[in-house]
Design brief:
The complex is a heterodimer. Chain A is of the alpha+beta class. Chain A is 40% helix and 28% strand. Chain B has a two-stranded parallel sheet. In chain B, α4 packs across α5, α6 packs antiparallel against α7 and α7 packs antiparallel against α8. Chain B starts with a helix and ends with a helix. The chains are: A alpha+beta, B mainly alpha.
């Protein structure tokens, strides 16, 4: 039997992403709400794998919090991921 | 030999005496606390005054001080008043106690947010070099940026020294937590490379 390319967690991430572009933090919250609580590094490792497989596209967006620049990671699903 | 030793000793003594004489000439006479008080607090340039010793006020100065408090309560910088109140030793006076309480509350309300001393940004940047470039870019940086955002938000809520210290400690612990989690992920990555792809996929399906 051929093993599926995606784990259930990765499918859940793609499901949570939908067609929106959302931040890593929000996505982690959505995952936690669906019962898959992950630590920050574990979550970003998961996202890095999805990015490597071209299912997801991630980029840094700068935002200003209390006068300081913060780089926020945003993700969106690719055609392949859909 | 003895002559040389005597000469050197004499020279050293002369040098020390000269330095002592110079330092005694250059040292300005110190002002008493009361003098500083009169000069700065009762005078014009109150903002530059940082008391260094306990000031004991005479009855006359106490009366002036009370008057000044009454007149300037609204305009006098509350932070400065706070500084004076910590250092000023006064006889108990009911009216003054009420004023001090009032000023204390104004001081608390106007207390400025002070920055958290530990430069977390620099520390976090440096700690990032424990990991490879790829690991840093993909995992460490986004986690640290989230932490940074949290710190900036937490900082806005800190008003007292205790609160700032508490936040510092919390973020120190969180930094350790993040580092440990990053190490765990890095180890997983390393091991992952050694394990054949089929077993890896099977393992990820089991999770």
């Amino acid at each position: 039997m051929k093993l599926p390319e995606l784990s259930h967690l990765q499918i859940l991430v793609l499901d949570c992403l939908g067609t929106n572009k959302i931040t890593g933090r929000e996505l982690r919250k959505l995952l936690a709400a669906k019962g898959s609580k992950k630590s920050g590094p574990a979550f970003y490792q998961l996202m890095a794998r999805l990015e490597e497989a071209d299912f997801v596209e991630g980029d840094y967006v700068q935002k200003i919090v209390e006068g300081q620049i913060i780089k926020e990671r945003w993700y969106r699903i690719t055609g392949e991921g859909q | 030999m003895l002559e040389i030793l005597e000469g050197v000793t004499a020279f050293v003594i002369a040098l020390l005496s000269f330095r002592l004489w110079r330092s005694s000439r250059s040292a300005k006479p110190r002002k008493s606390g009361e003098e500083i008080w009169i000069e700065n607090v009762m005078g014009k340039d109150a903002s530059k005054f940082v008391p260094t010793e306990t000031v004991r006020l005479s009855a006359d100065h106490l009366a002036k001080y009370l008057e000044r408090l009454r007149n300037d309560a609204a305009h006098f910088p509350a932070d400065d008043i706070g500084k004076y109140l910590e250092k000023v030793s006064l006889n108990y006076d009911e009216e003054l106690a009420v004023m001090i309480d009032k000023m204390g509350r104004i001081k608390m309300a106007r207390r400025k947010r002070q920055p958290i001393r530990i430069d977390y940004s620099a520390t976090w940047n440096l700690l990032g070099f424990l990991f490879s470039h790829k690991m840093r870019k993909e995992i460490y940086t986004p986690v640290i940026e989230e932490l940074k955002e949290d710190l900036l938000i937490a900082r806005t809520k800190c008003r007292t020294r205790m609160q700032r210290r508490w936040v510092q400690m919390c973020f120190l612990l969180r930094t350790f937590g993040v580092l440990l989690a990053c190490f765990r992920v890095a180890t997983g990555r390393l091991l992952g490379r050694a394990i054949p792809n089929t077993i890896r996929q099977w393992f990820s399906l089991m999770r």
